[in-house]
Amino acid sequence: MKKQLKRILPVGLLLVASTAFAGVQQGQFSLSPVVGGYTYEGQQHLGTNLVFGGRAGYNITKQLGIEGLFDYVNPELTGGKKDITMYRYGGELLYHFMPDNNFVPYIAAGFAGLKFDGANASSKNTYGAADYGVGAKYFLHENFALRADVRHIMYNLSETVTHNVEYTVGAHIPFGGAAPAVKPIEVAPAPEPAKVVAPAPVAPKAFLHATPQNITSGEQSTLQWSSSDAKKCSIQPAIGAVALSGFTMVAPTADTEYTLTCKGEGGEATSKTAVAVKAAPVVQPVPPAPVVEQSAAKASAAQLCSPTVLNIKFDTNKTAIKPAYQDELAKLGTFLKDNPSAKGSIEGHTDSVGNKKANMKLSQRRAESVRSYIIKHSAVDASRITAKGFGPTKPIADNKTAAGKAKNRRIEANFSCE
User: Fold this and answer.
1) Which of 8, 21, 38, 49 is the most buried (most CB within 10 A)?
2) Residue 298 located in a structural domain
3) Residue 209 has what pLDDT?
4) pLDDT of the residue at 101
5) Nearest-10 crossing angle of helices 326-338, 288-304
6) For the domain that residue 395 is a member of, what is the CATH number?
7) Residue 42 located in a structural domain
8) Which domain holds residue 270?
């Protein structure tokens, strides 16, 4: 008997440890085949043996249910004869805890009849027996669960209350009943559409600079400018509307303050720079043509003896000199011929778009292209000019804007005059 129980209980515990799915439902019927052990108090002279039984139940609510029961036991008499059979039949009231969970423990109490048959049964072979106990159901599926129960059973034998213990495991098979109500999904009211607030327009920025800022009457200065978040720009006096960034040459005859004004959706921005002009030295009258040539030479010398941005542009990833910029390079060649002591370099620069290593090589090739052109077309000694490419390493404007990038893509002439 004990060996049989040892085999039954581990199997039941293993099944209870499995993954489950559902809980107790109101209005369902159920059938439960069970097997286990039944132990008698010593004075009954009956040994522990297997019990086989069945349960038929109905859930009045999720918590409260009723079951009809029937058990069959063939206990051993103390003398070793097996001629006693016991039947137990009756009903129980069950109260479920946590009925919506997969694991549902419960308590039970009920009343049944104990009927003993056999040659050694007493003259009174049917007794009324009360019972109470605990149990648990573990749902592996909404239509199948495992159950385990323990009951303390009491009945009056020969004017003495006798105690028995029944412990079983089995299956719980529910069926019928209404499907559980599905809780409606609460849908939150749609929020009111957020008011779209247009961002405030960004105030424009402007920058203007003159190189050089001190000239002799008749010489030129280069005005360079840039802007951001602007729609239109102008320079006063005398120049008027200009691009959003660029440069131009001016030759004021007196001290002049230039003002760059740029307007955009965010307002207006201004930047000022001044060019100081000193009187040219008095010279002997000369024919008009030579005077013009001398003034032009002086203007070029004054301009190119300091770092100067040349007005020359290249096609994307190209180094060829376009015909439109040959006059600009001719001026540089004339300057070098008229100033034989001047030495310096042609410097190439790019914006930050693309691979830095490739930009370094491109700026070097462009600087060498300009150097070769001047040496070839102006007959200047090659030892007086070097070429150097700096790529994106020396920006003069912000690479985050198109105007800034255009300004950074440049060729500079950097010569010193003794």
Assistant:
1) 38
2) yes
3) 92
4) 92
5) 90
6) 3.30.1330.60
7) yes
8) 201-279
Residue 185 lies in a domain: no
Element (H, E) at 58: strand 49-59
| Number of folded domains that form the chain | 3
Residue 399 to residue 172: CA distance in whole angstroms: 77
394 near 221, Cβ under 8 Å?
no
**Residue 374's CB: how many other CB atoms inside 10 A?**
22
Q: What pLDDT is recorded for position 338? A: 87
Note the pLDDT of residue 335: 86
pLDDT lower than 70: segments of the chain: 1-22, 78-82, 119-124, 178-184, 282-303, 418
Residue that finishes a domain, picked among 221, 246, 279: 279
pLDDT value for 15? 43
Task: Please name the residues in contact with 369: beta carbons below 8 A apart, sequence gap of 6 or more.
Answer: 319, 320, 321
What tens digit of pLDDT does each residue of 359-406 get? Answer: 999 999 999 999 999 888 888 888 889 999 999 999 989 999 999 999
Q: What is the CATH number of the domain that holds 78?
A: 2.40.160.20
Q: For residue 414, which phi and psi values (nearest 5 degrees)?
A: -125, 95
> 273 vs 149, 207, 210, 364, CA distance in Å?
100, 9, 6, 32
